UniProtKB/TrEMBL annotation:
Cysteine disulfide partners in this protein: C25-C96, C27-C126, C37-C151
Alphabetized InterPro entries for the sequence: Netrin_domain, TIMP, TIMP-like_OB-fold
Alphabetical list of PROSITE patterns matching this protein: NTR
NTR domain ranges (all copies): 25-151
Localization per Swiss-Prot or TrEMBL: Secreted
Protein name: NTR domain-containing protein
Amino acid sequence: MRCAGTILILAIFYVNSFIQDARACSCVPLQKRLFYCNAEFAVKAKVVNEQRWPFPRDIRVYMIKTGGGKLLRTLKGNFTNVDLTKVYTQSKSSTCGITLEQDKVYLLTGHIDASKCPHRLSIVLCDWIQTWRTLSRTEKTFVTKGYLNGCP
Ligand SMILES: *[C@@H]1O[C@H](CO)[C@@H](O)[C@H](O)[C@H]1NC(C)=O
């Protein structure tokens, strides 16, 4: 079965932290690089727009473009059976949701929600998410291939 998958430990961790502290999203302070090493996926993506997502209301969905040619591309992860046209986040920053701006190109990192079919790209405020043009040259090198040797 292509879509069989277990709910990720990471997902459980985030859900737990929502329940424990409903008002504030707190992130473990780590270096960006370590976040990258821990991330299940990384893509260079352009945000096309925000999709209306009526139910459940606490989910926000952005349509993205990635994984095409050299410009917008996948950087890290196993994208088998993953929907690369959308990213999912919580609707509020208090529950670690993140706001993305339309038409901007981002480095997006996060976890792959394998409990859904197709699998979903899921991001939170704590992930390393940054507009591509504000990354330093060193960071760009790291996220494209440097991490292969640079992660513990
Ligand atoms: C990628 O993920 C699929 C299922 O989502 C799995 O069957 C496959 O073994 C994975 N490949 C690697 C290289 O981990």
